[in-house]
């Protein structure tokens, strides 16, 4: 259930959490609602190449935990969501201007950007629903694909996001001074 906090409060309250309570389950309707919000994210040319695999099974997560250093997240979260690039989405690409045509490599780079936006929106929606999250690139893509029986020609794993109820509240990470990050011209 959404807390309806102002978006700025949600953004300030989101912190990576790596140990969850291990007991909370998220109903499919709620997970679907979170992902529906996540997939409102913009994508290049509105191609929407990202897909989400919601991994709930404790048995599968135990197996996946052998293919990542992020064991606590895998084993204690309510679910882990694997965001992948669907390469076959390329087939739907019908650029209307030559300047919008991109090669396959650019496509993967662009899909990674699209993925980041979907995942960020997912994490904020999750926070708004009272859950915490942790985005992770630290996992063995090939091993995950094998354990999850993914068609590797089609699906490119990009980002894993653990979601659940935190055991202890996440803390604000150290952030660089804003003046070292931005410039105006
Ligand atoms: C692309 C990406 C990959 C990450 N991979 C991992 C990871 O494999 N394991 C982990 O514990 N945290 C991972 N993180 C979380 C970062 O460590 C965390 O976002 C950063 O320290 C800032 O903390 P915050 O999320 O609490 O703001 C990742 C974050 C991003 C954006």
TrEMBL record:
InterPro entries in the cross-refs: Nitroreductase (IPR029479), Nitroreductase-like (IPR000415)
* E.C. designation(s): 1.7.1.-
Q: Per the database record, which ranges form the Nitroreductase domain?
A: 13-165
Instruction: Please give the Gene Ontology molecular function terms for this protein.
Output: oxidoreductase activity
Q: Which keywords has UniProt assigned to this entry?
A: Oxidoreductase
Family designation: Belongs to the nitroreductase family.
- Its name, as the record gives it, is Nitroreductase family protein
């Amino acid at each position: 259930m959404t807390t309806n906090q102002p978006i700025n409060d949600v953004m300030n309250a989101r912190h990576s959490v790596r140990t969850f309570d291990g007991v909370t389950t998220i109903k499919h309707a709620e997970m679907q609602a979170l992902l529906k919000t996540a997939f409102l994210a913009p994508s290049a040319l509105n191609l929407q190449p990202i897909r989400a695999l919601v991994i709930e099974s404790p048995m599968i997560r135990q197996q996946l935990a052998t293919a990542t250093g992020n064991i606590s997240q895998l084993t204690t979260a309510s679910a882990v969501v694997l965001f992948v690039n669907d390469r076959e989405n390329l087939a739907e690409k019908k650029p209307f201007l030559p300047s919008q045509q991109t090669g396959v490599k650019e496509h993967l780079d662009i899909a990674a950007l699209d993925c980041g936006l979907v995942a960020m929106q997912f994490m904020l929606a999750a926070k708004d629903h009272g859950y915490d999250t942790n985005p992770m690139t630290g996992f063995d893509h090939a091993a995950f694909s094998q354990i999850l029986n993914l068609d590797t020609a089609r699906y490119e794993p990009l980002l894993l996001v653990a979601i659940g109820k935190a055991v202890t509240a996440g803390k604000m990470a150290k952030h660089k001074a804003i003046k070292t990050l931005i410039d105006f011209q």
